[in-house]
């Protein structure tokens, strides 16, 4: 009825005739007849009013056609306290996403779950792959149930068809899929790469090789060795980088053969000496193995540069076994040596390539020496999985002159223990005390970056909230950093307290 | 406290100041909170807050009210921050004295015996002037609507928004702000799908119905005249509530909606009387930037006496006496099937053609349909469309786990706006 009247109203009832009494219902017709007025406009509007009210009153439920969904399964984990949920939602709204990850990790560690009403926002947070792991770890049955109904959250089901993403997806998604596939099934990942290898552009080929770094094994050697003959330089270099970390690879065997002729330890009566006789030329075979002809380091001549690269491809334990010297002793022999820098660069690289823990410890002991410090930083990641890493970090923190504390802390999984957090805090305070009176702006900016670094990694400590007064002429960046540090620390402290309830 | 903030940035700034380290000389007494906050100026700002009304003053130059410093202090206090009790310092005492002096004057003014005859005559004159203006405004509106359908509104979709606004402003001048808002909304009706002529005509016809009703208001019942005044937007005074017939019950607060209307904050709180099984709507008002008067929390229950304002379908009410709060979480209210709830809408329509929104208590489950449309579906398979909003439908779905439960919402004639849910509490009638 309203539709017929509306059609008349669009045209205008001054020129066009009124529509016929529009319904079959006797009661409504009688009402409309009674409402008829002298002017057409008035009649039309009265009828429309009757129709509108009737339609309103007679609103019918709709039987929408939709698939029935299962109801949400129960969750054994208890939900977090409402106040903790409030803090989490504040973090999602206003702070860094990294803070959200920290809070989610704490919920996971305590065996709790995110309260149901917050799940949509947490699932949104995990849409970015940087935050995916934190969200997947905390995902409850409720979160997975919700994710099963929204394609945007399907990642949380962990059931992505990685293979088809790799075959048809856009480049960043393919990279991500390949990384995850490689972690799950190394052989399948390699076979997928082999299958598409010939038709991929060079950027993709080197990107795929990078993904193979995860779970690298001797089964990959044949494929990688073949890639040394690729048309493109960056692909060849990527393959050589991987092969140089595999003790059983043919590339390493070739490097060993060369190295045997160029390095010897001479044990004399009074002094042990390192005899070095670098290769006179960089052969085609060496170049095929990724050894660069032109030095990229001004301090090294060509022969020293080749030497460094060959040494980097030989497991450092070879030398200690062959010449019966300790790692520290061997490193010490490079002091004031003609080829000292090249040897240190090569040995540092080799320590890294073959993840040699003994050598890494030897490097650590020499970290205070200016000759060794630059390479030392590159070696530290080898210490990552050591059971006594925390002890090493604590030692470094207690020595304020130690420049590697920060790099070591990067290796330590967050949140740090109370001992490490406390030691780092007092180190920061000591540095601050020094800088307060130096008005050294570089010192302040490093303090600011250390505070930002620590705010998300430290165990939250109540004592961290106070004692940060700064001189009024300190830059606004350091004031902001201190404010941000305290705000994050305060929020994390409260959050921990509420999680205990 | 956050609700007091004039805008989001002030709320955020307040939150970051709500920590004892930003403050000096903090203190509180029975009537006030105070503290010094170092801002960008040379002297720290003097911040004072009167409790419990949370009125505040600060010596900072910010034009926002309340400023971030006052908000920070209130938040710190609300969070149980370390504010020691003490004697108010000079700057606080001075301010409190000024405040109480002002309050006394106001009370005096209200209590001053007035010459009732003169006052009554003045009031009658004001009402007479208002009625005249409204009558003129409605006559204009009527002619305007007739002209629209007479000439045909084919061009309505391409009209400048100013076209509708101009008409709305005329109605504001005519002291019919309720109608003015409805006319302003017409501008958005013409957007969207091909059914807009029907929707526009329905709205115009309802407005037309108001002008017709007003033309014969002499013949209407007093309750019907009250309905009409509500639609026009004539403010109801507290005295108009029917205090002679107070309604005593245990009232459950179902949910609330806050909106801003013409620089005024309005809160609609829906209550449900447990034994009488009826709804009540309590409105609270406050100028922007000032706290709304305290009200029950949604989900809480209270023994109280209400007086309803006269209407064909009495809905709006005001507290006559408030009693004791119920203890613990109140049980879920009873919910209806969708068909029964819509039958209830028909009953209301039979008595009042305009009343919207209408409260609905339903037992149903939330479901997502095609094209991001959401539905409440009951056991009979009947569905009602659900409006998006905050919280989002996804958040409601997560909250209720897709299980059927009792829902409360406002029906706007087309969609249900969800306001509360009682998951895990099964209650049916």
Characterise the protein shown here.
The complex is a heterodimer of chains A (501) and B (429). Chain A is mostly helical. Chain A is built from 27 helices and two strands. The longest helix of chain A has 25 residues, at 476-500. Chain A is elongated and about 130 Å long. In chain A, 36% of the residues are buried. The model of chain A has no long low-confidence stretch (mean pLDDT 86). In chain B, the strands form three sheets. Chain B has a five-stranded antiparallel sheet with strand order 7-6-5-8-9, with no helix packed on it. A five-stranded antiparallel sheet of chain B has the order 12-11-10-13-14. A four-stranded antiparallel sheet of chain B has the order 1-2-3-4, with helices on both faces. In chain B, a hairpin with a 4-residue loop joins strand 6 and strand 7. In chain B, helix 5 (161-173) packs antiparallel against helix 6 (177-189). Chain B is globular, with a radius of gyration of 25 Å. At the A-B interface, helix 1, helix 3, helix 6, helix 8 and helix 27 of A face helix 1, helix 4, helix 7, helix 9 and strand 12 of B.
Q: What class do helices, strands and sheet pairing of chain A give?
A: mainly alpha
- What's the shape of chain B? globular
For the record, give the distance between the C-alpha atoms at the N and C termini of chain A, rounded to a whole number: 61 Å
Greatest chain-chain contact: A-B, 60 and 58 residues
Task: Assign the structural class of chain B, choosing from mainly alpha, mainly beta, alpha/beta, alpha+beta, or little secondary structure.
Answer: alpha+beta
Helix content of chain B: 25-40%
Number of helices of chain B: 10
Computed over alpha carbons, the radius of gyration of chain B is 25 Å
Q: What is the succession of H and E elements of chain A?
A: HHHHHHHHHHHHHHHEEHHHHHHHHHHHH
From the spread of the alpha carbons, the general shape of chain A counts as elongated
Contiguous runs where pLDDT drops below 50 for at least 5 residues of chain B: none
**Largest beta-sheet details of chain A:** 2 strands, antiparallel
Strand content of chain B: 15-25%
Poorly predicted segments of chain A: none
Beta-strand portion of chain A reads: under 5%
Oligomer: heterodimer
| Beta strand count of chain B | 14
Q: What is the residue-averaged pLDDT of chain A?
A: 86
How many beta-strand segments of chain A?
A: 2
Strand arrangement within the widest β-sheet of chain B reads 7-6-5-8-9
């Amino acid at each position: 009825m309203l539709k017929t009247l509306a059609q008349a109203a669009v045209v205008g009832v001054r020129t066009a005739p009124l529509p016929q009494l529009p319904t079959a219902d006797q009661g409504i017709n009688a009402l409309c007849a009674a409402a008829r007025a002298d002017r057409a406009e008035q009649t039309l509007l009265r009828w429309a009013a009757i129709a509108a009210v009737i339609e309103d009153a007679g609103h019918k439920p709709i039987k929408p056609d939709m698939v029935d969904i299962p109801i949400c399964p129960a969750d054994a984990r208890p939900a977090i306290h409402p106040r903790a949920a409030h803090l989490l939602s504040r973090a999602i709204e206003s702070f860094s996403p990294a803070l959200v990850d920290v809070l989610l990790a704490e919920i996971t560690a305590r065996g709790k779950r995110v309260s149901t009403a917050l799940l949509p926002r947490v699932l949104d947070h995990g849409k970015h792959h940087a935050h995916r792991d934190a969200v997947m770890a905390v995902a409850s049955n409720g979160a997975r149930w919700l994710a099963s109904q929204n394609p945007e959250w399907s990642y949380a089901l962990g059931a992505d068809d990685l293979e088809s993403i790799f075959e048809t997806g856009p480049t960043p998604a393919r990279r991500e899929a390949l990384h995850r596939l490689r972690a799950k099934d190394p052989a399948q990942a390699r076979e997928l790469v082999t299958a598409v290898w010939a038709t991929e552009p060079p950027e993709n080929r080197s990107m795929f090789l990078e993904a193979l770094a995860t779970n690298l094994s001797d089964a990959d050697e044949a494929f990688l060795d073949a890639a040394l003959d690729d048309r493109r330089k960056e692909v060849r270099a990527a393959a050589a980088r991987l092969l140089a970390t595999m003790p059983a690879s043919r590339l390493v065997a070739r490097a060993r053969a060369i190295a045997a002729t160029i390095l010897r330890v001479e044990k004399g009566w009074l002094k042990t000496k390192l005899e070095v006789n670098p290769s006179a030329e960089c052969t085609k075979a060496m170049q095929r193995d990724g050894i660069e002809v032109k030095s990229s380091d001004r301090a090294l001549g060509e022969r020293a540069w080749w030497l460094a690269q060959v040494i980097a491809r030989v497991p450092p334990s070879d030398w200690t076994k062959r010449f019966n010297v300790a790692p520290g002793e061997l490193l010490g022999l490079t002091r004031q040596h003609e080829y000292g820098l090249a040897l240190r660069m090569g040995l540092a690289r080799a320590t890294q390539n073959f993840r040699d823990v003994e050598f890494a410890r030897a490097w650590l002991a020499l970290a205070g020496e200016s000759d060794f410090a630059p390479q030392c930083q590159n070696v530290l990641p080898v210490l990552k999985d050591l059971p006594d890493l925390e002890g090493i970090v604590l030692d470094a923190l207690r020595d304020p002159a130690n420049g590697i504390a920060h790099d070591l802390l990067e290796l330590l999984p967050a949140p740090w223990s109370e001992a490490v957090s406390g030691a780092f805090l007092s180190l920061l305070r000591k540095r601050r005390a020094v800088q307060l009176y130096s008005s050294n702006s570089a010192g302040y900016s490093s303090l600011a970056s250390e505070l930002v670094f620590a705010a998300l990694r430290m165990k939250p400590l109540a004592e961290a909230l106070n004692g940060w007064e700064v001189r009024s002429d300190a830059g606004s960046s350091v004031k902001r950093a201190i404010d941000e540090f305290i705000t994050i620390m305060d929020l994390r402290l409260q959050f921990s307290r509420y999680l205990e309830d | 406290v956050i609700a007091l903030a004039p805008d989001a940035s002030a709320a955020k700034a307040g939150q970051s100041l709500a920590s004892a380290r930003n403050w000096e000389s903090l203190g509180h007494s029975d009537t006030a909170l105070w503290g010094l906050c170092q801002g960008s100026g040379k002297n720290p700002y003097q911040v004072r807050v009167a409790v419990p009304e949370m009125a505040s003053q600060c010596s900072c130059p910010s034009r926002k009210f309340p400023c971030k410093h006052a908000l920070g202090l209130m938040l710190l206090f609300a969070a149980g921050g370390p504010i020691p009790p003490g004697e108010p310092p000079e700057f606080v005492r001075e301010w409190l004295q000024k405040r109480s002096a002002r309050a006394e004057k106001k009370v005096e003014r209200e209590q001053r015996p007035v010459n009732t005859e003169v006052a009554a005559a003045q009031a009658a004159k004001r009402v007479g002037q208002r009625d005249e203006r409204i009558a003129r405004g409605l006559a204009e509106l009527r002619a305007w609507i007739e002209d629209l359908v007479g000439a045909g509104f084919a061009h309505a979709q391409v009209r400048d928004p100013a076209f509708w606004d101009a008409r709305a402003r005329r109605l504001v001048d005519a002291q019919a702000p309720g109608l003015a808002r409805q006319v302003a909304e017409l501008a958005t009706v013409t957007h969207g799908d091909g059914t807009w002529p029907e929707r526009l005509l329905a709205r115009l016809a309802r407005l037309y119905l108001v002008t017709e009703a007003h033309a014969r208001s002499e013949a209407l019942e007093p309750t019907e005249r009250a309905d009409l005044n509500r639609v026009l937007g004539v403010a109801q005074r507290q005295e108009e509530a029917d205090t002679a017939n107070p309604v005593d019950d245990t009232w459950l607060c179902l949910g609330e909606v806050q909106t801003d209307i013409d620089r005024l904050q309005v809160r609609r709180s829906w209550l449900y009387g447990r034994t009488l099984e009826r709804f009540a709507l309590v409105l609270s008002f406050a100028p922007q930037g000032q706290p709304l008067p305290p009200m029950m929390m949604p989900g809480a229950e209270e023994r109280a006496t209400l007086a309803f304002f006269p209407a064909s379908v009495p809905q709006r009410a005001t507290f006559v006496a408030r009693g004791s709060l119920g203890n613990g979480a109140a049980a879920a209210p009873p919910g209806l099937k969708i068909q029964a709830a819509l039958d209830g809408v028909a009953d209301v329509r039979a008595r009042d053609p305009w009343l919207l929104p209408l409260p609905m208590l339903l037992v149903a489950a939330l479901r997502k349909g095609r094209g991001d449309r959401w539905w409440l579906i009951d056991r009979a398979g009947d569905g009602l469309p659900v409006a998006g909003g905050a919280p989002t439908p996804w958040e409601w779905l997560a909250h209720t786990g897709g299980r059927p439960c009792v829902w409360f919402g406002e029906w706007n004639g087309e969609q249900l706006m969800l306001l509360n849910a009682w998951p895990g509490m099964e209650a049916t009638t």
